[in-house]
Amino acid sequence: RFTPRIFSGIQPSGGLTLGNYLGALKRFAALQGNESETIYCIVDLHAITVWQDPDVLRQRIREGAAAFMASGVDPRQSILFNQSQVSAHAEMAWLFNTVARVGWMYRMTQFKDKAGKNSENASLGLLAYPALMAADILTYQATAVPVGEDQKQHLELTRDIAAKFNHDYKIEHFPITEPLIEGVATRVMSLRDGSKKMSKSDPSDASRINLTDDADAIAQKIRKARTDADPLPGNVEGLKDRPEARNLVNIYAALADETPDAVLARFEGQGFGVFKPALAEVAVEALSPITRKMSEFMDDPAEIDRILGHGAERADELATPILERTKEIMGL
Ligand code: ADP
Ligand code: NA
């Protein structure tokens, strides 16, 4: 009974990576034009849960919008906007702060990772982050959310908040949103450490491939990527205990829209001396048009602001009645 609606967001918390592209942006673009409405957001209120320099943040919000559009998100087909421009997100988040339990928040692994040892000194916003994320999604009664593997736990919390709200107020007001964690690139790993995800929020990892990297930088990062010395097997079974090799094969497959088995069928028996240059070629071919379009969009910041402003108006039209109804249900 809920309108099929897809929502997802990306934080303007750093330069976007190949992980963000394959796990999120590329899929956002592919989901357009189906039966579901698509609503995409630059989640700046999430970014400020850790310190952001205001001038850098302003720039990264525009860069985020440029990256969405360069990756194929069309602001005429999708609603593309910046979170802080639609006040329903923050207001709904407060309502959800009263629904969610403190214990749910303390269990979030991202909070533990980002807060580190001195968690008493983390911002309160970092702890409450998943309630804001639930608000982002449920303010549109979104039925599905495409995300990478790292967001799975937060999405479960969104479902918990929706279910508790519906139960407490005895009304099917919010959908139990489905996570769309699909494809071979739902968790792109760091090129220097196969046990960590590639993340824009980890400034210490110089191995990550950024959407603004030129062809030489991409090729060099792939050449330097950590691997073992064995030749490639003929199918993915053979990559079981080889996380670095599996990561590179998955990246190739996702970039080339092939299955990992199809990639391995071609490279069986070859070493990384052959595979890495081939991967670099595929990566440059996929990413260089995006890098170029991003920089074209960035040449006209006023146009980006206009597009985001228009997107915010459309988002607001959907969000406001749902927020108002939520308040009414709660007796506000
Ligand atoms: P980051 O973790 O890089 O700071 P965000 O938290 O803003 O990125 O996440 C934006 C989207 O990109 C989310 O859907 C997230 O799951 C996805 N994502 C982030 N890193 C990766 C990765 N290494 N592999 C696949 N998807 C990723
Ligand atoms: Na993340």
Automatic annotation (TrEMBL):
The keyword Ligase applies. GO terms for molecular function: ATP binding; tryptophan-tRNA ligase activity. This is Tryptophan--tRNA ligase. The lineage of its organism: Bacteria, Pseudomonadati, Pseudomonadota, Alphaproteobacteria, Rhodobacterales. Keywords: Aminoacyl-tRNA synthetase, ATP-binding, Cytoplasm, Ligase, Nucleotide-binding, Protein biosynthesis. Belongs to the class-I aminoacyl-tRNA synthetase family. Its main location: cytoplasm. It is an enzyme of class 6 (ligase). L-tryptophan binds at D136. It comes from Paracoccus alkanivorans. Homodimer. Pfam families: tRNA-synt_1b. It catalyses: tRNA(Trp) + L-tryptophan + ATP = L-tryptophyl-tRNA(Trp) + AMP + diphosphate + H(+). It is found in: Cytoplasm. A motif ('HIGH' region) lies at residues 12-20. Its EC number is 6.1.1.2. CDD domains: TrpRS_core. GO terms for cellular component: cytosol. Catalyzes the attachment of tryptophan to tRNA(Trp). ATP binds at Q11, P12, S13, G19, N20, G148, E149, D150, V188, K197, M198, S199, K200, S201. The gene is trpS. A motif ('KMSKS' region) lies at residues 197-201. One of its GO terms (biological process) is tryptophanyl-tRNA aminoacylation.
